[in-house]
Amino acid sequence: MRGTALILALETSCDDTCAAVTDGARVLSNVISSQAAAHERYGGVVPEVASRHHLELIGPVVDAALAEAGAQLGDADAIAVTAGPGLIGALLVGVSSAKALAAARRLPLVPVDHLHGHVAANFLEPEPLEPPFLCLVASGGHTLLAAVREPSSYEVLGQTLDDAAGEALDKAARLLGLGFPGGPAIERMARQGDPEAFDFPVAMTREPSLDFSFSGLKTALVYRSRELGDAETQRRRADLAAGFQAAVVGQLVAKLERALRSGEWQAVALGGGVAANGPLRARVSALCQDRGLRMKLVHPELCTDNAAMIGSAARFTEPMPYPQYLALDARA
Length: 332
What we know:
By secondary structure, the chain is α/β, with parallel strands linked by helices. It has 12 helices and 10 strands. The protein has helices at residues 36-40, 47-69, 88-105, 114-120, 165-175, 182-190, 215-228, 230-235, 237-260, 278-291, 300-303, 308-314; strands at 6-11, 16-23, 26-34, 78-84, 109-113, 133-138, 143-150, 153-159, 267-271, 294-297. It has a 5-stranded mixed sheet, sandwiched between helices. It has a 5-stranded mixed sheet with strand order 8-7-6-9-10, sandwiched between helices. Strand 6 (133-138) and strand 7 form a beta hairpin. It is globular and about 60 Å long. 51% of the residues are buried. The mean pLDDT is 94.
């Protein structure tokens, strides 16, 4: 799929129903239907609820993406879809829909790795980033450091051993009564707090590996809130949010800095929903400026789950011909 090809891409790995039309590195449309309101009452994503909403939304979202791009299904050269990882029920909605759309026109289908999509968001216009570069992907389901030496693949240098960074932020927000999604809520509350008011652990910073761990930080917040009691926790939740956020950002930056010392890199890219976090962007920007490195920040719409990044990755992924992809399965 290298070069210019009109790709209709679908992304349903978690709780956002997404469709996009890409033409090479150009994004012609990128429609995202968020389910945040449907999951807010639960303080997190409920897989079955997400799957049912995808079933209702996938058709209208695809129609909206085609209309926004001024295209029809017959104009597409290929259909791309997230095949994993993600919530299995949610993924199956996207994969089944992509199969149907592709088979109706006997188009090739491109199964895309979700994490490759976050990396490939950096290949989109404007100012596409060329490998080699280091990419930090931090989202609600994944946290990893990747070495990107070519557009078609990436090497995992380190990844979370337990909770992802975004998952930890969601759980902290729920504990503090800040709503869902947790990352933006924590960031807003943290602006009013003192990040040094509480001493939260920045895990694994002394470990020689590039792996991450956030479960201990989450537990530390639980114990601190118990010590304070409900009333005091609510009174000081701005300080708690600021300290928690600082610990998450501190670990991400510490591991990124260690990875930069392990090789010759000219650029750093951020991906995933947590990449939209202001303090993280500021810390990484300062780190890159000190080292004379280019920092690639994609638009916030391309940080969270979206289908444009899937269309970008599809350009560098082997397509499956009809009818071979009819046996394609999603992977959790």
